[in-house]
Amino acid sequence: MLASLVILPKDAFGNNISSASDQGLNSYNFTFSVSTFNGSVATILDFTNKGWDISGYLVAEFIAATAGTLLLNIQGDNQTLSSSPLIFVVNPGLLVVSKCSLQWEVETKYFQIFSLVEGFIHQHDQYGNLVPGLYEFDVEVIENGTNLIIPVTDIQFRQVGLGIQLFSFSLMEPGDFKLMIHHKELNNSISTMPFHFTVYIGYCDGMNSIVNGSGLNDSVAGEASMFSVLLKDAYLYPSLVEIECLQVQVVNEFDSYQPQASIHPMKMAHGTLCGTNFNCSAHNDVELAFTPLAETNLEPRNMRFSAFDVNYTPERSGIYEIRVFCGNIPLNGGHPFRKAVSAGKVNTSLSGLVKPSPKVPKLTKNEVTVQLMDSYSNPVLLQQSKLELEISSVNSSGSSIWTFSDNKDGTYSGTYLAKDVGTFELCASFDGMRLMPCPFGVNVYTSEYFPRVQNDSVWVWEDDSIAFDALENDYFAGHNITIFEFSKPGCGSILQYDHLFRYTPFKGFYGKDSFSYTICDVNGNIASGGVDISVLSIPPQFVSVPSQLLAIEDVISPRFGGFSGLEIIYSDSTENISITFNAQSGIVFLSPMLMKFWQPAWSISSTFREVGKSTELTLTGCVEEINFAIQSLQYFGNENFYGTDTIHVSTMNTNGNNSLDIPILVEPINDPPLINLPPFVIMDQGSEEVSIFSRDRNKSAVFVGDPDLLHYPGNTSRFLVMFSVEVSSGFLSTKLPANLISTTELKFKTSYQWQPLQTFVTISEHFMVKAKGIRFRGTLEDCNSVLEQLLYHVCSRDPKLLLSFSAGSFPYIFLCYIIDVLFPDNMGDEHRASLIVTVNDMGNYGCYPGCTDLMSMPHFVEVSVSLMREKPLSLLFAHVFGSAIIVEFILVLSFGVILLFFICKCAFVLINEKRRQASQDFELSNVKNSQEGTLTKDLSDKMTRVRGCCSNFFMSNLQLSKFHLRSCLQVGIGGFPKATKTSSSDQLEMTSPSGPSAVASAKDEQLEELPSSLLR
């Protein structure tokens, strides 16, 4: 089939060449060669150059006659075209039966009876290519003479290869036959038909037969070799066959050389075989070992034998394989015999020096090559010890000679050095015999006479071209030097411009390449050198880049997955490369889902690094891994950033980097405005008109702003907000610029609604306003200016009335003061007022609450500032002091509860004691004659218990209850003193021992007075 090829001509820089720009290409001859992958030459037919087509290409046509996957090499002007060789596939044509061929498993025309015949049918098209498929063929066996078709019952076909069929059948009758193979449908025979063959009667067994002799051993080229063949059947009896049935193949493995083998029957002496291994010289009567057929007078070619001698003479050295066949029966189990044939003796007439150089430099080792051959032109090895090199000088100059070394290919290298300039004669000899040419004249010059070439090393980027001067570092005499020849690089094209070479690597190639060149000076001296070229792989390239990315302010974008549309390519799919992402006003990172479900078999790694004020994300891995990872990139901008940002992307490999910038548009989110004002302002008490936010008085920041203004793309004068200030009592006044007249509104004391500005006076493009509330639409700068110039006018009111409880009670008064601090709204207008500042951004600067529908809502911010005449306590101090008072109150209350508990306990004890005392008095009245000492002792014991109880109680609560009890031991019998001063008569009465009744009565009165005194 006719194939067309188009060629796009380009110069060394990659520029296209058209038919109009270079008319010389019309007659430009391209050379084409087609080969298979194993290097064999393929056949092409009718190659034709068609010239230019309408698209600007050079067109060529050819017919490929060889089927398979082929390589098309294209050359022009000794240059290889880029992308050459081209790979293309040629399919075989239709089956042509007359082109089909038959090949036997054993190439013979003699077949042993009852053996299996096997042959291969090769199905070919018109060009001899194998045609795949199982085609139906008929096989007929016809007897010669009678032309009768012999029935073949066990014939079988099966496909054993692409376009090859194996057929087999058994031979059951002896005789001469012919084989016919033809196609059933096409009724046409294959080539080489009919095939004539003979079926002989024989019972040779390939395993039992013997092949032996010295001819199977290693030998020397040119020497005759002989071995014997003894044919035996399966029972080890001699198997007789005609001499034509025995076939011997001796083949050289290297070049398929086959020496001719002669076969003859083995001789017998007195009934004993006399062949290769037998000595027959002692026998006079010698006869052939044969068995005659039915007739006694037969020619030798019709005789049958069982023992044979085989003679052959190999003339080429190498390894040989020897196969022996008896008809179609291979001997030795089908395994070949192997033998080595070495070269013979050296033939000095065929040996000699190989291209000796007539000019050499002095004081330099110069090499001489000698080739040794035998009489059959076989290279002779391992003879370096017999080689000698002789050198003589006409002017008796000195020289040095070194021994020869074997190059393992029949050549030997010798080295000599000439110490002076002059003429020398060389002569090489082998074992004393001189080798031609002898003598050989050599002229010795100084080293400056000869050019010297130094190897060069250059590098070039992949898919790029480089021009360089290879002779720049070379030395040559004079200025006339010629690049004699140069080789072709393996993976690129080379062009020569005088002393310059331009190398262009093939598309997609990277790695090492080289070529050699040879220079020639004016004296005809030549020198060769090489150029090593490193083709560097270019950094990863971007094949797909998004034009612009979209994101939302203060939101990770995209919400799910990552940005798509970014893809890179790289020549080496296994090399680790790096890609770096860096955003000017944000951060780029991988989606967390990707990091969680990452494939563990991959080796990609990601790192973050701070570079200045930005953060870099670096991914490292092969190109496939990186292309998968960058599909999950996400972006998060800096706080409150919106507008246009740039993501800088840089790819790197070991040879360099490549970068680009991807714009990303960040949609704004409407952020609420900011009001940064102090919670209270202390005003001067002696003035009725006070500047509220004076910078001299309040050093804290007074600022009204909006985060959206930071990255506002337009003029800040167009960033407008609705601003208002209003005071709870008094009036406000400020100075406004004239451009706010149309948007200014006021709120007066008598009205609760905003009213537009009615009257004003403009001075220096400003006007003054005074009202309870002021509102306008303006810029943030106007708002800040109004706050800085804002004046407060105090409105006097009656002082507040304070409720008075427990005059002089310090805890209550201080608690009231703390409540006033914590709750300032209870204070009057004269000492305190509230300033309310509001800002409304009107929803014009971004979407809110979401950007899905591109809708927006205004943000409203309000701040209240307390205007005070007195400086209040700090909030921390007020809370701490109030907490201390509350703690003290809790402690006093606790102590009071404890004191009440013990008072009640003592009361219960005294009541019980009085009851027991009454019982004892009743008993004492019945015993009137009791001794006074006994009564006194009993009363003393009871009072001691009472004193002990009261003493313990009062001593434990002495500091808390603030009661001071006098010592209970002042009275001799333990009585308690009264509140009033005691007279002396009373004392005498208490201590008078008038009787037990008086004493008991006095003690009872004291016991009755105890609870009341305790209560006091």
Mind describing the biggest β-sheet? 7 strands, mixed
**What's the number of extended β-strand segments?**
69
Number of helices: 9
Low-confidence stretches: 276-297, 797-817, 819-829, 942-1016
Radius of gyration: 64 Å
Q: Name the strands of the widest sheet in spatial order.
A: 57-69-68-60-66-62-63
Helix share of residues?
10-25%
Into how many domains do the coordinates divide?
A: 8
Percentage beta strand = 35-45%
* First and last CA, distance: 139 Å
- Integer average pLDDT: 79
Based on CA inertia axes, which overall geometry fits? elongated
Structure classification: mainly beta
Key features?
1016 residues; mainly beta; Immunoglobulin-like; 7-stranded mixed beta sheet; 14% helix; membrane; repeat
Describe this structure in words.
The protein has 1016 residues and is mainly beta. It folds into eight domains: 2-90, Sandwich (Immunoglobulin-like); 97-200, Immunoglobulins (Immunoglobulin-like), CATH 2.60.40.10; 210-342, Immunoglobulins (Immunoglobulin-like); 352-449, Immunoglobulins (Immunoglobulin-like), CATH 2.60.40; 456-536, Immunoglobulins (Immunoglobulin-like, Sandwich); 541-667, Immunoglobulin-like (Sandwich), CATH 2.60.40; 674-872, no CATH class; 886-1015, no CATH class. Helices cover 14% and strands 39% of the residues. The strands form 18 sheets. Strands 57-69-68-60-66-62-63 form a seven-stranded mixed β-sheet. A hairpin with a 2-residue loop joins strand 5 (68-76) and strand 6 (79-80). Helix 4 (810-822) packs antiparallel against helix 5 (875-926), helix 5 packs antiparallel against helix 6 and helix 5 (875-926) packs antiparallel against helix 9 (996-1015). The termini are far apart. Mean pLDDT is 79; it is low at 276-297, 797-817, 819-829 and 942-1016.
